[in-house]
Amino acid sequence: MRALVYEEFGVLPTLQTVPDPEPTPDGVVVEVGASGVCRSDWHGWMGHDPDIRLPHVPGHELAGTVVAVGRDVTAFRVGERVTVPFVAGCGRCGPCRAGDQQVCHAQFQPGFTHWGSFAPLVALGYADQNLVRLPDRLDFVTAASLGCRYSTAFRAVSQQGRVRGGEWVAVHGCGGVGLSAVQIAASLGARVIAIDIDDSKLALAARLGAEHTLNATRTPDVSAAVADLTGGGAHLSLDALGHPQTLTNSVLCLRTRGRHVQVGLLLADQSRPAVPMDRVIARELELLGSHGMAAHTYPQMLGLIERGQLNPAALIGARIDLAGAAQALAGMDTFTGVGVTVIDRF
Phi, psi at residue 174, to the nearest 5°? Predict the structure, then answer.
């Protein structure tokens, strides 16, 4: 098969012919119908993920059809339409037994610990515990967009953030995760403020349900502006970008006993940023991380999509072929695209 492969970190991937994958005893092979291009893929390509071994095929947001099944797989069969969380739990460790597969100690991550979905076929381990059947009406492009950004935002807002109707939610960064968080929070009855430096992304955030938008380049004090708009600060705030400044703004914009959720990755030299702990203590703030979403919690999100309460298709931006994925990957650090870029032709 043809796959997009990089042999050195930071060097543009190329299309290469590689062997077709075979399923492990507990795994499957999926024919990829669509695969998202995510900033997490960019981090991996830049060498920020210690699990990646070269040469490597990226891609972790995927949907497709099962075409081969390992001998120990009992819950899935050839021909089923599936997606998978970007963190697949082993099912045996303590976190997995507690239902927290998204923080599994021995996790399988397509595109990171193993070759990913920038290819027409991808092998997925721990299939029985992690594959998610797709509703018949959910197309592959939309389903692929759920695998990392949308599902991560859903858990960050509804499970970690514990959003309630009528609460103020601030979303810092309107890339794929941030725009997903805007739509999800608004759909769950929250009043949303979207913050970014790109007016086109803020315009999309408004269409997705943001009540207010702030361009950070024209807002001298973002946290003060959020406090003014909300009458005292956000109840819930998310750093959906992953930068020391957006983290700080997110914490400082909270009202007393508010909740900050860190969703965006802070890696390399930004991995240990300063945090305004004086405010955290004085206002009894909560600081929470959010790392993906376990497969067994997908039905709540999929049910809301089927009922029309959530519309992830509205976040789809460019659709590209596999040959165009190299430039799309390399451009993920410029934040110029609007919405989610998806490979839909292999």
Answer: -115, 50
